[in-house]
Every structure is written in structure tokens, then in C-alpha cells.
């Protein structure tokens, strides 16, 4: 057996808890989680409430480390497919939290490390952090009749605030399409629902809306796909803004919104080339105009076959997960390489119903 003798400087650091803590605090969250396996001492340091509290205050959004996939819709069983090669897959990863939500929770949204969940059969909502295995049941919203429920969305950006907000909307009347909506805001800072607004507008696309930069964004296909809408609810008032889509994007349901690392992204079919291609556009900081980020040959990729888009800390780490020739693969935008995700194929073989829920999992020490 060969033993490695560490240099004195390294032994000095790893034997000093204060120095080791300072080093660990500066690492990506997923690396910290994996370092729990180094030793019992490292596990104790990382699991300590003081360390978790300090790390949660560091404003950072890590690159997504996995896909959280619902693959048994009748029993709400989720599997974890790693995007980081250091993580093992879990094909039967049900919720590990308390009995009050175990096996009854449905993931509705993933937002920078936190999951917004719906808990049956009592029609409750909760926030769950799978990295640190913590959850919080939310108080019941006002006017929360299930038959009038339209949508609920969470807003959380640790680079802006340690607190999250949840937006809940219900129909005010029984007409379809509804003429107006009642919107309520929950804040984790105050712990209550407040700011009840009545709002009217083209909300038909809200069910598939996404959160980015203090607002909910969606494309209203009733406008022939010409506009995307921004509903700001994090600030003092609910404000609806119309934003023009890029002129080169084809209309009629040929575009889709994504969010990654605080950036709003638009995937759309380009109509200026002899052969259609998929373009990824990025919204500017002032939410005023789109700029072209990536172009992908569309001959083998359909718009509906794109599961998610993720921007890396480095350009060469940016990717999207797509269905390609009956397989699910990770495509790197810069390197133009494909990497198979066989674990997803295994899950797909077990599904008795069409796959409907896929969420990006980002490691986070955020409090709930």
C-alpha cells in the first residue's frame, strides 16, 4: 500500500477548522455537498448551522447540477439525473422530508435552488430545498378556491435578496377567457399574504410563464406570437409590460422562453435562412431588446424537443438538454458536442404516461 504524505502547508490548512471553513465557503455549493464524504469532520463542519447560514448569505447562483424528473405521474415519484459527472443518479428519489408532504407533493416550479410544491389532498403549498432537505408550508392564500385557481409562481434570486416571494392568481368571474384576476403576493420576509390586486390583461399564457429578474414572463400566442409579456410583482405594484420579440423569429407558436442564471432566454425558429435554424436570444439588462446568443441547426432538433437551456459560468459550459433521434442528450453550444444521458432513457422506459414535468436542480443552501 502506498501512502501519500501531504505537504506541511496543506496539513496546516486542513487541520485548522477556521481556515477550512473559509475555503469551503468560497466553493460552489455542489462541491461543498460532495465534500461531505471526505470525512466525518468535514461532514460536521458543512452541516453546522453556522456554516449553512454563512454560505446561504453569499449571493451566487451555481450552474444546474441535475434534472429532477417526474417519471411516475400516478404516484409522484421523481428521479434525479445528474448533469455533473461527479453526482450519482437516483431513479427513485421520492421526497425525503416530513410525513406531512412525503409522497403527496407535486413539484410545480424550480427557482434557483428552491422548489415550489403543491401538497395533496389538502390543497396546500410549500417551499422545499432538496440540497439541505428543508421545507416550509405556506399559509393558505386568500380567495384560494381550487376551481378558480389560475396559477402560482415563485420568485427567488439570491443575488438580489435572501427572501423569496410567491404570486398566486385566481379568476374573479366564471367567464372564459376570464376578464380579470385577483393577484396576491406572499413574502418569506413577512410570512404573510398581502398586496391583493385586481388586474385584467392577456393572461392566457400564464400557465407556462417563467420567473426572471423580479417578474413573470410569458408569450401570448393570441397575439400571433408577436409579443412577450412581463408582469412585475416583486416591487411595490403589479405592472404589466409588453415587449416585442426579435423580428427574425417566426410567429405562430414557434418560440419558447427559458431562464438561466438570472438571464431571460428566448428559443425561436429563425425565418431569415434558407434552412430553418433555432436561435437562442438573450434579453438585455433593461428588458428592452433581444440579442442573438447562439444558433443551432434545426434539421435534427425540434422546438418541442428542447427540455431546458442552462448558461454556464464560462461560455464553454453553456448547454441545452434535447431529444435527438429518440434519445435525450446534452448539447454544448460552444463545443458543439453531444453527451448522452442514459439515465433519462431508463426513466422514459418506465413511464406509463407522457412525460410532463422536468425541473432543473441547482444546489443551494438557501433558507426556506
From TrEMBL:
Species this chain originates from: Tanacetum coccineum
Domain F-box: 17-55
Pfam hit, one: F-box
Classification via PANTHER family: BNACNNG10540D PROTEIN (PTHR31672), F-BOX PROTEIN CPR30-LIKE (PTHR31672:SF13)
Superkingdom per UniProt: Eukaryota
InterPro entries according to UniProt: Beta-prop_At3g26010-like (IPR056592), F-box-assoc_interact_dom (IPR017451), F-box-like_dom_sf (IPR036047), F-box_dom (IPR001810), Gal_Oxase/kelch_b-propeller (IPR011043), SCF_F-box_component (IPR050796)
Name of the protein this chain belongs to: Granule-bound starch synthase
